[in-house]
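Archive transcription. Copying these from loose printouts into the bound notebook so they stop getting lost. Printout 1 of 2:
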Amino acid sequence: MRVAADDDSITATVVSVLLTLAFVGLSLLTLGVIYLSVQDFLQKREKEKFEKEEAERQKEEARKKRAKSRKKRGNY
């Protein structure tokens, strides 16, 4: 009878350890996914900001070119 009780105790311990490892593994996986999601969000936001600044810079350059060409036409 004592052997059966020891087997139950060992089985319960093994199951507890495996469940704990599964919980820790899934927690790490979840944190990894959250980290990747945040990094992706920040990267997209930075890219959009850069594209917006680049578009504004191109508009400003186009305005300067138009102003130069108008000055040249006015001098002739």
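Printout 2 of 2:
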Amino acid sequence: MSSTCPLPSSLDETDLRLAADKILRNQSSGECTFQMFYDQMYSLHGVYFIFESTPFVHPIFSQIFYGILFTLTIFLALMGNFTVMWIILYHRQMRSVTNYYLFNLAVADASISVFNTGFSWSYNYYYVWKFGSFYCRINNLMGITPICASVFTMIVMSIERYYAIIHPLKKRPGRRSTVTIIIMIWFLAFLFGVPAFLASKVDVYYFYDGNTLYENPLCLADNFPGGTNSLLGQVYNNGLITVQYILPLCILSAAYYRVGVELRKDKTVGDVRHAKSVAAKKKASIMLAVVVFIFMIVWFPYNAYYLTLHLVEPIGNRMLSLYIYINIYWLGMSSTVFNPVIYYFMNKRFRVGFHHAFRWLPFVRSDKDEYHTILSQTRPSLMPPMTQAHTDF
């Protein structure tokens, strides 16, 4: 394609500036418009060149605030969830079917904190991808897979609670079945993340205002067959919202509503052991319902944002739009912090375990006798015998 635009021979900063300055000087002639230069730069070099200053320059206070906010979120998520994993694995009494699922939730929350949040928050805030093309794929994969794993785990837990309360005499899954289910959860979660992995790419944008040249790589997951706005990409993104939020919300609401109705019934018949069993199941069900409720609340703005993205007019102020999104994103990622807090306040064994784990802190009091009474420190095997597999915490 012939062109009167003075295209640079390379992406060297000097060559880019020389070519861009020529375009700015000769705009009055109309021989090469900004749009022509934009199109031909992409055709020749595969990059986008925009004649304006980058819109995403943040004040120092804002950078410090969000840096601290996300660093603290990641730190608390890792500290809390690794402690939950330790409590369940190290203490034989904690290795029940329900706690296996809580362990899986902790793994999912820790993995998204390690492999996604630390990279995505800076990208979503500065709108510059600095971690390479390959990790762009990994980042998008790990932004979807752990969330799917968490949601699928909560669905399985709600079904397990349903049968434990509604059909208490039916045989519940044992240790091996539970491990198999967890493996299947992660397999399905990775299947849902693979399309984002395959569709990920890094596009490079250059912003030039006549003085400063900004190189702006973007990590995008829109490289679907048919282009950026392809039907396949829209089906996939809307399908993710359905699978990660809408469908689980319906299933979990129905399951816990039915469980709640059953638990509100007056159960006065039975011996003391039966009464204690019912009380334990009730406490476990309430705690798991709180976990689900908090998860759905903090992820609602994120899913609503993407669900309405193509239905409403975009905000004209790009900086305002970025701040709205970064706060929505943080709220969703904060879900990784809440579960250990819920376990601490709603379950005595977890509370004692946390106190023991952090007994080295001057403001944490740990009763050694209480710890040995409630949580054994012995570790005879990684997995419990089948007789302990169905206890509720």
